[in-house]
Amino acid sequence: MHEHDIVEDAGRRAVWTRERDLAPNPEATQQQLIGAAETLFATRGIDAVSLREITVAAGVRNSTALQYHFGDREGILRAVLRKHYPDVELRRHALLDEYETGATSELRPLVAAFVRPAASKLADQDGGREYLRIMAQLVNRPEIRVAEPVRSDRNDSTYRWRQLVAPHLPEVAVTRLHRRFTAIRVTFIELARRAEVRPARDDRLFTSHLIDLVTGVLDAPLSEETLRLLDTKARAPARPAAPTAGR
Asked: For residue 116, which of 137, 87, 138 has the smallest C-alpha distance?
């Protein structure tokens, strides 16, 4: 090979190498998009952020990258939740295992098994606090169905927790007052409130008190007034179904 050809070939290799190194890494692009969505969803609200704003905030040049990797808003939201889900699940299942094999049947340790894994996200510097703020939005927005499938997934820690909590509550508190969901909602609203402010040196007192509060929510006695209103509602005639369009 002539010297000119060697130099030309080396030049082509250099250009190819530079282009390869500058080419977008799909995994890195996905992480950039997830990180940007995480921050924007937490600070501005899930519905208040456009897909274009997420792409720009992520520093991704390709304007269709988000749709390519995640499809739509629900897809990127699912990806944000999946980022944190395994860690929370692992911690919660471990605490539930400990509860089931332990000697105690008290309610507070069972509440702690739900609260502590989520509260650990307060110390997660890789989007943990943003995750808590997003979860608070989701528990307050039943029309957003992104996390719905896990409610009936027997392998999901929240499903398992709900099954273990049920025997501690009056049947009416489970079937009509939905007190377990109230406990979940209180947990994430309080964690989100904590996540919005500057990180504390120590979250142990906050977490312990939150466990106390959630235990109180679940264990609160039903007043005579509530029981009377439940009975009145049960006796009331059912409302007629809304007319179907086209009839």
From this structure: 87
- pLDDT tens digits, 153-212: 778 999 999 999 999 999 999 999 999 999 999 999 999 999 999 998 999 999 999 999
Cα–Cα distance for residue pair 133/43, rounded to 1 Å: 8
3 state SS for 7-55:
HHHHHHHHHHHHHHHHCCCHHHHHHHHHHHHHHHHHHHCHHHCCHHHHH
DSSP class per residue in 152-203: G-TTSHHHHHHHHHGGGS-HHHHHTS-HHHHHHHHHHHHHHHHHHSPPPS--
- Domain count for the chain: 1
- CB count within 10 Å of CB 81 equals 17
Q: Which residue has the tokens 């006796």?
A: 235
SS3 60: coil
Q: Which one-letter amino acid corresponds to residue 94?
A: A
Does residue 158 sit within a domain? yes
Q: 25 lies in a domain?
A: no
User: Can you give the residue range of the structural domain that contains 117?
Assistant: 82-221
Q: What is the DSSP letter of 100?
A: H
Query: What gap in Å lies between CA 175 and CA 163, rounded to an integer?
Result: 13
Q: Does a structural domain hold residue 68?
A: no
19, pLDDT greater than 50: no
- C-alpha 97: how far from chain center: 22
CA quadruple 6, 9, 13, 15: dihedral, nearest 10: 120
Phi, psi torsion values for 156, nearest 5 degrees: -80, 140
Rg (CA), the chain: 25
- The predicted model scores a pTM of 0.84
